[in-house]
């Protein structure tokens, strides 16, 4: 052995997690109470009508939870649901005592309202997983004892409805919520007198060895501890500190669908709410988790928050986006029809019956408890009986998206067999403010019959998911899926292939449908899809709006078919949670909208109505697109109101509109022939 007397080198830092936790080379862990690397609140609201206190739930390990209850809620008002909340922090940092978690729990308790139990648990790397899961089970065991005990905590005895227990958590707390839900659903965790009624996962912290696309963002600036710096490198570090020694991110704790993870198909899940912020690096993994659960038949509601990042509720619990999140949680589980029984929810079962908050032409009502009620039939003016089935057009229904139950109604002139020249194809998306309507409504049906007969053309009228059950961009995703489905059907379905010219596809829509046509033009342009050539886009009074009202909006009378109030109502119901009317989905030229300068949108026909409050927006759209060098034709109909094609499909004005579209289609064909004559390719590659 060496006789050197030199002393060993002092331990050095192996892992440094935000300056809060340091793991040294000799296994020592040092913790700092300095959370300055994270944006913490300085002033927690003190005017919220919520009382709180700390309770020990595991004396052996010295673990506590903080109990919150609305101060002004009396027993005579009915008992409240119980929300068991686990904070985030990558299993390595944080506590319910941190100001942001405390403020968030105060807001949840006051605004849901609910009894909130915000629990601490042992942290890694001193206590690696499954320690945190064991502590979470201990919380449920404590709660089970409270539900069964005659001498329960007086706050719980007075206010808690143990039949309505919801488990909730953000980030790694959402991960804990998942594992608790699986434990209850598989019978490994018993609640006895209590019942788990739902699971709420806020941007749950899952992982896997195989990266998802969103997990490879640009590296944040050095020293940046903002939400954008919640990068995958930090999450990887926290997994190294939290997982059992030697485990990878495919460990069942991190990856619910990893190679060693138990199957979830046979596990009984309660309703699950998953919140997935758009800017979260885990966004794709969270969406994949939700999709897999839904494919197993679990009842899952996935809510996307546009423009928000990981942990936004924690970083600013008093923000407008956080307020919308609380409202989303309050409505959960919801989205039921009047014919379905109410499920255990976060609203008071003894409260007065829910009342109508929003009413869209009687076709859709949003109630105060979040319930959405839809009329069984089309309301006025869309229910008028129109007997125009004169034999000139034949039609049939099909399903283009079985997963979402979405249908398409297809039309073609009856005399197409043996025709020398195939017909153009008109794809049509109905209007309805993104919230109401169907291809089966009589007026939309009549309009499509007229298009098929008088253009003539093969017409396909597609349904799409409606808000508020499915907020945008769900409908835009469906519109794109419709075109992709059409590409395959035009070549494989004899009913279409015999009559339809795949080189002459025109994408059209009215109001909300015109909005879809614009976004499809930006996405697919003149190129189309493989062998399908999109020869033009027809935007009928497209639904474009902005925060700044135009003169035509300000001048719109209260008696108009589309009023400012109705337009605002549609936006509240349809736009992503927290978004305003400058969102890129409804304002092509808004502050956050991508530039259209380089977009090859092909030929575009824009139809505006002189009496439409959206007239100025439609005209502005056409003029700005023309200024960019786009091939855009603008036609303004005098004396007509918004959506006159869908509302009055048999009118003289609609007949003139059909003729305008017919000339546009003929012009597109001539334009295509000129390009071919000049030696340019006549079909897309």
Automatic annotation (TrEMBL):
PANTHER family with a match to the protein in the record: ARYLACETAMIDE DEACETYLASE, OS07G0162500 PROTEIN
Record-level Gene Ontology MF annotations: hydrolase activity
Domain Alpha/beta hydrolase fold-3: 83-313, 426-645
Family annotation (SUPFAM superfamilies): alpha/beta-Hydrolases
Protein name per its UniProtKB record: Alpha/beta hydrolase fold-3 domain-containing protein
Tree of life domain: Eukaryota
